Amino acid sequence: MLIEKKRTAPETRPLYQTIRHAIETQIMSGALKPGDRIPFEHELMAQYDCSRMTVNKALSSLATTGLISRQRRRGSFVTRPRIHMAALQIPDLREEIERRGHVYRLHLLSSLVQAVDDETGEVMRLPASGQLLAIRCLHLADGLPYALEERFINLAAVPQAAEVDFSETPPGSWLLSHVPWTEAEHRITAVAAGEKAKSLGVKPDKPCLVLQRWTWREKESITYVRLIFNADNFDLTARFVSNVGPEGDG
């Protein structure tokens, strides 16, 4: 399938988001490490030729996501990475496949920048404005289809995604290592393979599990993904420990 060349999304973000993104990128890349001080407010004001309110909004956003700690009269410092605890963790498919002893391979089917319309806006829970990166790819284990991925990335929140070569790097793996998130929602359904059967290498009536996931940074939508698994390749396991004492009810 022809892969359309990606176009860089125009810079339309508010300035505070540009400042936040620049600092966030340095933290996620390791250029700024836990304990490092980030520039003082007056330094950022001079660097970006902006008001204290704009800088404060950027730093407040970084503090809300847990990337920095703001200390009165001392400045702002990079924090230790936050550990996310969720009923369902966000999986890294490449890591999961390799952990099970299989050889992972990615097949990028399509990648293109498109405007947010009413349909995609409803899926992403966004207003019908701005741009998305729409990606379709197939994850393979030992050369066999493991999962079909259909993903939208909000380029207003993650503009650098438009420049990433997702034929080499799985979108989920890249997002987990480069973009912090504060909230996620999962939805799991069971369907027949239907029109996805050919991509998954199964018959149209083959049972499949569909995992849909939305992630946000504060209230800003980051990505929506729909992962379709051959039911033979997917299992969902959760282990729970009771907090009731030995004399309590089980």
From TrEMBL:
CDD domains reported in the protein's UniProt record: WHTH_GntR (cd07377)
Matches recorded under SUPFAM superfamilies: Chorismate lyase-like, Winged helix' DNA-binding domain
Annotated HTH gntR-type domain residues: 13-81
Keywords recorded for this protein, A-Z: DNA-binding, Transcription, Transcription regulation
Superkingdom field: Bacteria
PANTHER family: MANNOSYL-D-GLYCERATE TRANSPORT/METABOLISM SYSTEM REPRESSOR MNGR-RELATED (PTHR44846), TRANSCRIPTIONAL REGULATOR PHNF-RELATED (PTHR44846:SF16)
InterPro entries noted in UniProt: Bact_HTH_transcr_reg, Chorismate_lyase_/UTRA_dom_sf, His_ut_repres, Tscrpt_reg_HTH_GntR, UTRA, WH-like_DNA-bd_sf, WH_DNA-bd_sf
Name of the protein described by the UniProt record: Histidine utilization repressor
Molecular function via GO: DNA binding; DNA-binding transcription factor activity
Matching NCBIfam families: his_ut_repres
GO process annotations (BP): L-histidine metabolic process; negative regulation of DNA-templated transcription
